[in-house]
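Hi,

I'm pasting everything inline rather than attaching a file, because the server keeps stripping attachments. The sequence lines come first, and each chain or strand is labelled.
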Amino acid sequence: MALSLIAFDTDHIKRYVFGTDKLKEIRGASSLLDYLNRIVMDQFAEQYRAHKVYANGGSGLFYLATEHANDFGQQVQQAYYDVTGGGASITFVLLPLPEGITEKNIDKEDITDHLEELQWRLQEKKLHPPASLTLASHPFLRLCDACGIEYASPAVKGKKVVHDPGEEDECYCVSCQLKRSRDSDVKGFIEDIEAGKRVSYHEYLWDQIIPQLRKMNYDIPPLTERPNDFNVFRNFKGAKDYLGLIYADGNNMGRAFADCKKLDQREALAHTIDEALYTAVCTAITRHLKIKDHLKLKEQQTGDLKNPVFPFDILLLGGDDICMVVPASVALDVALTLIETFREETKQKQTLSVGVVLAPIKYPFGLLQETASTALKFAKKVGSDARVKAEKAGNAVDDTRINFFIVTGGSSSDFKSVHDTVYHEQNDTTTQDFYATLRPYAPQDLRTLLSAIRDKDGASLGRTKLHQVREAVLQMNLTTSVSDALAVLRNWREKQRNHVVHNVYEFAGRYQMPRSDPDDPVSGFPRVTFPWFFDGRIKKKVKKQKKDFDIYRTPLLDFTELYDFVSREEGEYQ
Ligand SMILES: [Zn+2]
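And the predicted assembly:
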C-alpha cells in the first residue's frame, strides 16, 4: 500500500480569533478552531485510517494510504468551512512517499527530505490561496455588529442567536453568530466537566484543564464560571481596573522539529511540547490565580456576579502558543511560572518567550493583542541574539526572555518604537549610550526586580517620589539625571534609600560579571553613578568614524513603572 504524508495549516488564525473585540467572540472563535483541530480532524483520521503525528495549534501532520489522502484533506477543509460559517479555512498539501516506505518502517526511516518538501509545498500553497468562496446567506444588507465587515444574517439554521443583555437588537454575520454560540456551548461543557462528566467528543481545552487543576488541588467551588466579559476583571483585587494580557510563544521551535529526522521523534516532540504547555498553564493558575485570592468581597463587586469566577481566561493554547488574560497584579508572576515550568517540563530543551501587556480594562482588545505581539517579538529577538552569540562561543544559554509594557494614555502601541525613542538615547558628543530599561528580562533578573518591589523596605516609597525618579532617569545623562535622582534619594528614609541603591548595585553586579577578570579583582566591582550603572563599551560608527561608546543602564524606570501594579502581601494592595 502506497503511503502519503498530509500536512494541514489553519489560515490567518489570529485574524479569525482576534478579529472582534468581545471576550465571548474571541474565545468562541478560538474554541471552534481547537475543536476542529483536535477533535474533528481526529474523527476523519479514524475514518480514513490516517495515522496522526500531531494535530494541535492550528496544524496537523498525518500519513495514510495515498488513495484516501485527498478525500481526507477535503473533508477536513469542508468541516472548517461548515463549522465556522466560512470564517476560518485550512490549507493542506500531500506528498506521496517512495514505495519502500511502509507503515512498519515509516517511524524508523530518515524522511527528513520528504518532510522538508512537504513543509515547502505547504508554504508555497499558503502564499497562493485559491479564490475564497462566499457563503450563500440572505443578508439583511446591514453590517454585522461584531466584526463590522460581513453582512449580518438571519439566525443560522438550528441555532439561536446569542445576545447579551442590553444588546438584543444587535445583528451578526454567520461567522460571528457561530463564534458566539460556540462560547455559550462551552459554558455548558464547563458546567458538565465541573460536575464530573467528561465531554471529550465536544471540547478539549477545559476537559483537560479542569481535571488537571483539581489534581493540583486548585479549589473550584460549584458553579464557577469564566469571566463573562472583560469588565468582570474589575472584580479582582489589586491594580485598579487594569488587566494583563500574556502572550507566549516557543523559541526556535522550527529548528527543534527540523532536528527530528524520524517521524516518531516528531510525534514525541509535539506531544512533549503540548503536555508541557498544559502543565505550565495549570501550574501558573494553581500558584497565582486562586479564586479566593482574587475575587473582591461581595460588597465591593461591580456588575451582577451570581457565581464564583475564574480570575483568568485562556484565549489560545496549543502548538507553541499561549494567550491568557489575568489580573494585572499577578501577570508577571504568571508569565514567570509559565516559562519556568515549560522549560522544566521539556527537560531544559525547549523555551518560551513572553510579552506581557498591562492595560486599562476598557482598552480595545485588538490593539492590546497587537501591542503584546510587538512586546513578544522584541523579547524573542533579544533571546535569539543571545542564543546565536552563545552558540558561536560554544556555550549553552537560556534564551527565555520576558518583556512587559504598560499602556498609559497616548503611548504608542509598538514596543520597539517606544524602546528606541523613549527608553534609549545615544549621545554622539559625549559618546554615551543610555538605556532607561533592562527589558526584556531573563527570568532570574525579573524575579530580582519583583522581589525588590515587594520587599518591605521598598514599601511606601510614595508615588510622587517614584515619579521624580522616573523623570530623572528619562533625562538620560550623567549630569541632571544624576543630581535629580540623588535629590529624591535624600528624601527617603535611610532604609528605603539603601534598598533602592542596593537594587541598582545588584543589577550592576550581574551585568559586570561576564567582564570581570579573575586576575584583576578590581575589575569585578560594578561602577554605579546613581541612578545609572556602567555596562561596558561598544564600538559605534558616528559620521564614518568608529568611536567607543560607554553604555549606561538602570533598572529604576522598570521598578517605578511596575511599582503600582505588582501585588504585595494580602491586604496591602487594593
Ligand atoms: Zn461578523
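Residues 422-574 form one domain.

If the labels don't parse on your end, tell me and I'll reformat.
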